[in-house]
Amino acid sequence: MIKCVILDDELLAISYLKLLCEQIEDVEVVKAFNDPKIFLNEIENIDCNLCILDIEMPGMNGLQVAKLISDSKKIIFTTAYKEYAADAFDLNVVDYVRKPIKKERLIQAFEKAKELIQNSQKKDFIEWNTNIGKTIIFTEQIAYITTSEIDSRDKDVILGDGTSFVLKNLSLKSLLEMLPAKDFAQVNKKEIIALSYIKAFSNNEIISTISVDGEHFLRLQIGEAYKHSLIEMFGK
How does pLDDT run across 76-98, given as a tens digit for each residue? Predict the structure, then answer.
């Protein structure tokens, strides 16, 4: 759910933007402001994850406001002036939407925001029932995950130092949702690998840096359905 706050010095612009947001699923406008100073006084105490900021405002513009907002708040800029685009993206914002705003373009911006918000909310550890009881496993330590040969509901996890655990009754889909998307890839129907443990890969196979017996490295077959996403992750 996107909970957004709007800042625009024009009341008509606020009303129009609120109307558009009400037509978009999973988007809630928590509050709207037409004064940057009041916005800055209140924003850190408002339960929201996205700020939609107009750039051209009297007294303090949206670029200045953005620099004073906590990193936990994602930002979409709106403006009628294209010359601000470079400065806007230097601030690493979600998107830059030109006025007059169209619903379809706003939906695109919200989709980007959703993905970033979901990724930022993912913890850097997994807490789950394992073969040794309730266990916290830090995701940066995970090298490889595979479906257990004993019980397909369980998942075998190998850490970078060779330590292994069995995650009890957890699907690969649910597991992927817990992991930082930028750091892990599903290779086939049964296996996930941390990208940092990939040594090389071809169209059909991944060679990892994970030692199997002290002499050989773990090799994974790439499933046809997963080739495209893997190539995209490596920018090929």
Answer: 999 987 777 777 767 778 999 99
What would the two tokens of residue 65 be?
Answer: 């406001």
- The H-assigned helical ranges of the chain are 11-22, 36-42, 62-67, 85-90, 103-121, 172-178, 227-233
- Give yes or no for residue 127 having a pLDDT over 90: no
Q: Please state whether the predicted TM-score (pTM) of the whole model is above 0.85.
A: no
Q: Which CATH number is 125-233 given?
A: 2.40.50.1020
Q: Which CATH architecture has domain 2-121?
A: 3-Layer(aba) Sandwich (3.40)
* Cα–Cα distance measured from residue 75 to residue 4, given in angstroms and rounded to the nearest whole number: 9
The answer for residues whose C-beta is within 8 angstroms of residue 131's C-beta and 6 or more apart is: 165, 166, 168
